[in-house]
Design a protein that fits this description.
Elements (H helix, E strand, L loop, with lengths): L1 H33 L17 E2 L3 E2 L39 E7 L7 H10 L5 E4 L1 H6 L1 H9 L3 E4 L12 H19 L5 E2 L8 H9 L3 E2 L4 E2 L8 H10 L6 E5 L6 H16 L3 E2 L5
Parallel strand pairs: 3-4, 3-9, 3-10, 4-5, 6-7, 8-9
Antiparallel strand pairs: 1-2
Length: 281
């Protein structure tokens, strides 16, 4: 009788063990499915912080922190923030026997088209440091320069002396220009230049926060003084050298001498064996 009376107890124990085993198996299977490669990653909570999965389990950092690092990245990709510099870049010797031509203050309907025609004729690219108010007023010219492969850069909105501005004003001048360039071209500038070459700590910090590198120049043509076409040509040719960055203007006053000088010194630079190119980031 004792043996017979123990059978129901054993059956009960077996039933409990079976239930526990099934529950454990189901939980393991569910956990395995949640970590299957390719499964959708839950969005970040609106309040920020680490994304969560299921009942509050943190997602591994590798599933949401890694960002694409190539030019073919998906929309919304943000480049790494450049370092905060203490001085601007003045030359680019790493480019070899190459010179960089830059034009400030435009685009201007009277002068930028002539500069673009000359650059197009010789199939070279330049950097245009645009003022936001000029870019906004001459959108077709900005698109034309971009379509030709030139680099569109930030030269503030209204060309102020940044060393006389508060940080909030510097941010507004630079940010507004980057916004309008992005609105017209779909991309934000990656380079900026301080008007008058007047830099300070705030300009470097804010430019870096906006993802831009500061570029100054090696050779100043001083074309804004309107010294005569011959003088502009001589200054550029005398200053020619590997990695040299040349400062010219396509707005901010009468720039007819700048347009004429480019037509004369550009073919001579090319004949002397210089390449004219732009840096890429």
């Amino acid at each position: 009788m004792k043996k017979d009376q123990m059978i129901p107890g054993r059956r009960a124990v077996l039933r409990i063990a079976a239930c526990l085993g099934a529950a454990l198996t189901t939980r393991l299977l569910t956990a395995g499915q949640a970590q299957t490669p390719g499964s959708p990653v839950p969005p970040l909570p609106s309040g920020g912080g680490q994304p969560v999965s299921g009942a509050g389990a943190p997602v591994k950092p590798s599933t949401y922190r890694l960002q694409p690092m190539t030019e073919g990245a998906q929309p919304g990709y943000r480049r790494p923030t450049p370092p905060v510099r203490k001085v601007p870049i003045l030359e680019m010797p790493e480019l070899g026997r190459t010179m960089v031509l830059t034009f400030d203050d435009g685009p201007h309907p009277d002068y930028t088209p002539g500069i673009l025609r000359t650059l197009r004729e010789y199939d070279v690219r330049a950097m245009f440091f645009v003022c936001g108010e000029m870019a906004d007023a001459n959108r077709d010219l900005l698109r034309e320069a971009d379509d030709d492969g030139h680099i569109i850069c930030n030269h503030t909105w209204s060309h102020p002396l940044m060393t006389a501005l508060r940080p909030s004003q510097i941010r507004a001048e630079m940010g507004r220009t980057s916004d309008v360039v992005e609105h017209i071209l779909g991309t934000r500038p990656l380079w900026y230049r301080a008007p008058y070459g007047a830099w300070n700590r705030y300009a470097f910090e804010i430019g870096s926060q906006m993802g831009m590198e500061p570029l100054a120049w090696t050779v100043d043509s001083l074309d804004w003084e309107m010294p005569g076409t011959d003088t502009i040509v001589r200054r550029v040719l005398d200053g020619a050298g590997p990695g040299v960055v040349v400062l010219n203007h396509d707005a901010g006053g009468d720039r007819s001498q700048s347009v004429a000088a480019l037509r004369r010194y550009l073919p001579r630079l090319l004949d002397d064996g210089y390449r004219i190119a732009v840096p890429h980031r």
